[in-house]
Here is the input.
Amino acid sequence: MSLVYLGILLAGIACMALLDARFRLVFGAPGRRVPAIVVLGAGLVFFLAWDLAGIALGIFHRAENAVSTDILLAPELPIEELVFLGFLCYLTLVLSTGVLRLIASREVRP
Here is the structure.
C-alpha cells in the first residue's frame, strides 16, 4: 500500500485551491460558491456513473501497482479514482473560469 498517487492528486487539488483563492475564480468568487458546488457535484456524479458503467460492462479494470492504496470503494473502483474525478472537475472549473476572465480582460482594453 502506497499513498504516492493519492498524495499527488491531493497536492494538485491544494495547488488549484490556492490559485482559486488568490484569483477568486470558482469558490472564492463572491456569490458563486453554491453554483460551483452544484457543477462540481454534477461532474463527479456523471463521471462516477460513467466509471461504474464501464466497470459493470467489463471495460474498466483496476491494475495492481506500487503507487496506489488498496482502498476500494467498490469492486474495481479505488479511492484514487474518486479523488481524480474531483481533481478533473475542479481543474476544468478553474481553467474555464480563468480563460473566460482572460478573454473578458482583453476585450475591455483598446
